[in-house]
């Protein structure tokens, strides 16, 4: 088995790993090696619904989302990769006074940070998203700059751009251990040999806990299966149909080619790495459709898949650098928001590595916050 050397080893070839690696090599960091045990984007990234937004309740998530939206807007010209960005907006449908009050507060915060979100009435919500019914709807929140794009294309764009700037990508290579000498990381061992390095960046998504354990760092990330269905073509869909989310049930849908992509959370799902699809969630999905968008019930499902959310105890990300071991950085646990925050987090982790001050202070997202009993909950999650 060969030994190679690297300045930095990035573990994980999804949107986080490729964004971080690309930002590092673009900043002139030499000898960056990205290790992926399967194909690029083969983990949760390719299973994401592709939504991109800045409509959050937590100021950090708003800033990361808005910064990423700007980057997605420039993506094609910067990397040459078309990511199928549709800025059709995100529409949150609200059915309880508590939801309305919470979103009104979020919209005020978003507006103060430059995000053009607004509260709208049910009639305007229906004009934007004609498949819904407004029965029992009190209000909605809409931000026109949000939207959706193609996750795999983002990964391939980052990877190709990073390779042009000197990144080495090792696919079908599993990390088996991380060697240390006292406080310092000295190497990463893999199924294809050893990589001598002093810095490891964990971007392994749902698989991050095991990577952290290799250096004694607790990354409290649990995998949770989420399913998505794709429908047959739908006649007369408005081209600007927003990503529509019934916040009470978590049912969501957006255009996918001539049809729709739709999904919702399943409260019966238990943590685990199983990504087989099943139909146990369909009765609840049908019930949510019946209530909020009965037209969806007539559509035939033509496909679908299951993937893993990476959940933390407060449904917010883990971003930072470990204090117990030298130069172990991490960006994981995004609880469903990772794809859309990938560009901004790549920037932040690059700055942490280089000792620069990032554009936003992410210290509240350190993995140590749970031991310190300082969770940071995100309310606007699906």
From TrEMBL:
MF (Gene Ontology): oxidoreductase activity
Gene Ontology CC, one term: cytoplasm
InterPro entries: FAD-dep_OxRdtase, FAD/NAD-bd_sf
Sorted UniProt keywords: Oxidoreductase
Domain FAD dependent oxidoreductase per the UniProt entry, residue ranges: 8-352
Protein name, as recorded: Glycine oxidase ThiO
Source species: Streptomyces sviceus (strain ATCC 29083 / DSM 924 / JCM 4929 / NBRC 13980 / NCIMB 11184 / NRRL 5439 / UC 5370)
């Amino acid at each position: 088995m060969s030994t190679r050397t690297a300045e930095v080893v990035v573990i994980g070839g999804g949107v986080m790993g490729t964004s971080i690696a690309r930002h590092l090599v673009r900043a002139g960091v030499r000898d960056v090696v990205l290790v992926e045990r399967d194909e690029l984007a083969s983990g949760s990234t390719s299973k994401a619904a592709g939504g991109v937004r800045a409509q959050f309740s937590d100021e950090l998530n708003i800033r990361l989302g808005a910064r990423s939206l700007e980057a997605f807007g420039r993506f094609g010209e910067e990397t040459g990769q078309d990511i199928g960005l549709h800025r059709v907006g995100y529409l949150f449908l609200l059915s309880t006074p508590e939801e309305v009050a919470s979103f009104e507060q979020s919209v005020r915060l978003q507006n103060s940070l430059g995000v053009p979100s607004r509260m709208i009435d049910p009639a305007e919500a229906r004009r934007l998203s004609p498949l819904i019914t407004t029965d029992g709807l009190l209000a909605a929140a809409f931000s026109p700059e949000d939207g959706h794009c193609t996750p795999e294309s983002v990964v391939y764009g980052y990877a190709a751009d990073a390779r042009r700037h000197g990144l080495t990508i090792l696919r079908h290579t599993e990390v088996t251990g991380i060697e240390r000498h006292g406080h310092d990381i000295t190497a990463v061992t893999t199924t294809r040999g050893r990589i001598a390095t002093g810095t490891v960046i964990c971007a392994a998504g749902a698989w991050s806990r095991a990577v952290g354990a290799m250096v004694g760092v607790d990354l409290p990330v649990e995998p949770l299966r989420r399913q998505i269905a794709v429908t047959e073509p739908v006649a007369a869909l408005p081209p600007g149909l927003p990503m529509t989310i019934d916040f009470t049930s978590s049912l969501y849908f957006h255009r996918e080619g001539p049809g729709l992509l739709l999904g919702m959370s399943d409260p019966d799902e238990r943590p685990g790495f199983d990504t087989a699809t099943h139909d146990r969630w369909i009765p609840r999905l049908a019930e949510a459709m019946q209530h909020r968008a009965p037209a969806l019930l007539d559509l035939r499902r033509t496909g679908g898949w299951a993937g893993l959310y990476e959940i933390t105890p407060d449904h917010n990300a883990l971003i930072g650098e470990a204090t117990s071991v030298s130069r172990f950085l991490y960006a994981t646990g995004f609880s469903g928001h990772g794809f859309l925050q990938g560009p901004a987090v790549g920037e932040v982790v690059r700055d942490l590595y280089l000792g620069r001050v990032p554009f936003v202070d992410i210290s509240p997202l350190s993995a140590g916050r749970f031991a310190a009993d300082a969770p940071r909950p995100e309310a606007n999650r699906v």
